[in-house]
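Deliverable D2.4 — example input (structure tokens):
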């Protein structure tokens, strides 16, 4: 007798699997049979896999405990269990994230409420198109999704398709419907179903509790001192949740001014985190610029460093407690990636302020057919919205043209909450005038105050700025 090949062996094993309707994970054999879910068992009675048949006959297989595959031709554009209930056969329908959850919900609700499941947590647009009429036949649509929020986008899509008719079943301490069932919490699930609230996306607010939370959230209007008293007298400080732009001609010392703000924020606060990106200089130069402020002497070049140990100590102090982040954008990267950098630094790292400059440089490496102005207009709009969404202060520098307006795109200033002009007479005869920068607040949405906001003096010996008092 010929020894079977591995392929033949797998076929032999497959032939000895017997399909049965079997109680599993507290789901009864009766419920399994209703949904046509067969469990395949081996000769020892061990459950090997389950088979889920979708309305058009396509099958999904689950090799136990949790390995999924679909047969060739399976189309994920239907709701599992949809064929078991006639359109409009009840007032409500429940949508879950998995087949076992749909059967669990159906069983816990007394076999009276149609319960179906998504083919995945991120179904295609075709599913909504194909199932829209069927779902529309029910007065209420309940979502009973996993607490990991992976299907949150589906809930929002359903709420858009069926306004005022989508309700969310709270899961509280249980991840999904099957966990309720296995924990013997059938009554808790029924109560959650009865008390389900109308689904409102996270970015829409309509309850008194939500409004009071917004009202008492101090972070929404928080600000941090700039370290420049005259400027703070006008703008209070750099605002979180706002897009701030410093504008000036090229070569006036804008980068040095921003570095002053960065160092001030790190040394005058204990818990504020910042991220910096100076696109016109290498990472080492940015760090040495901060070290110059700490040491009160110019160490911005290798030939100026006489004591490497003290420079190392200065950077160690500045970067303590991981409050300083430095980031870059590669030459070949899409410049719009800065939006994702900001989101990551804010949400994953807890950064409160993002400093990057100059904004126009992002446009010169853009990808696509839009003009420099169109790109900067789009970017400025997104930066302004992102700062408000994430409650992060975004601070940048914009070059001026010869007429004193922001170069390339006026929309940069229009989208900013605060615009501050820097003026310096680079051709003045005396050193003091030549190294003095005047600050003028030309736009200030948070507080409304504008006008003269002090002066800064640049010490060429220490390579640092300091406030100049009249």
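Example output (designed residues):
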């Amino acid at each position: 007798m010929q020894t079977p090949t591995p392929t033949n062996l797998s076929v032999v094993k497959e032939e000895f699997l017997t399909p049965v309707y079997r109680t599993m994970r507290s789901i009864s054999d009766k419920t399994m049979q209703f949904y046509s879910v067969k469990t395949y068992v081996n000769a020892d009675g061990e459950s090997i896999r389950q088979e889920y048949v979708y309305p058009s006959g396509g099958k999904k297989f689950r090799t136990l405990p949790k390995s999924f595959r679909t047969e060739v031709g399976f189309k994920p554009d239907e709701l599992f269990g949809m064929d078991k209930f006639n359109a409009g056969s009840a007032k409500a329908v429940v949508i879950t994230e998995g087949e076992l959850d749909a059967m669990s919900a159906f069983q816990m609700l007394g076999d009276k409420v149609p319960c179906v499941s998504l083919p995945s947590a991120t179904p295609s647009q075709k599913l909504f198109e194909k199932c829209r009429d069927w779902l529309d036949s029910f007065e209420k649509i309940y979502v009973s999704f996993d607490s990991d929020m992976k299907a949150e986008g589906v809930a929002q899509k359903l709420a858009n398709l069926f306004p005022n008719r989508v309700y969310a079943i709270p899961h509280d301490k249980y991840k999904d419907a099957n966990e309720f069932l296995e924990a013997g919490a059938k009554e808790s699930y029924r109560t959650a179903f009865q008390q389900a609230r109308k689904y409102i996306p996270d970015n829409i607010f309509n309850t008194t509790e939500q409004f009071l939370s917004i009202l008492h959230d101090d972070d929404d209007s928080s600000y941090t001192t700039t370290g420049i008293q005259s400027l703070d007298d006008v703008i209070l400080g750099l605002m979180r949740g706002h897009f701030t732009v410093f504008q000036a001609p090229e070569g006036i010392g804008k980068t040095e001014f921003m570095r002053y703000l960065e160092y001030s924020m790190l040394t005058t606060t204990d818990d504020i985190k910042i991220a910096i990106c100076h696109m016109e200089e290498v990472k080492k130069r940015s760090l040495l610029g901060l070290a110059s402020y700490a040491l009160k002497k110019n160490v911005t070049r290798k030939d100026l460093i006489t004591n490497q140990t003290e420079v190392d100590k200065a950077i160690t102090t500045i970067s303590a407690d991981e409050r300083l982040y430095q980031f870059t954008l590669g030459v070949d990267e899409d410049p719009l990636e800065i939006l994702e950098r900001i989101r990551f630094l804010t949400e994953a790292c807890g950064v409160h302020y993002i400093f990057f400059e100059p904004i126009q440089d992002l446009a010169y490496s853009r990808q696509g057919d839009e003009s420099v102005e169109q790109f900067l207009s789009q970017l400025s709009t997104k930066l302004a919205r992102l700062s408000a969404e994430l409650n992060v202060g975004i601070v940048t520098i914009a070059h001026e043209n010869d007429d004193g307006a922001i170069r390339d795109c006026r929309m940069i200033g229009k989208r900013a909450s605060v615009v501050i002009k820097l003026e310096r007479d680079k051709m003045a005869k005396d050193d003091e005038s030549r190294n003095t920068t005047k600050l003028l607040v030309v736009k200030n949405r948070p507080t409304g105050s504008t006008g003269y906001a002090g002066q800064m003096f640049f010490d060429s010996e220490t390579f640092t700025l300091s406030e100049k008092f009249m």
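The radius of gyration is 31 Å.
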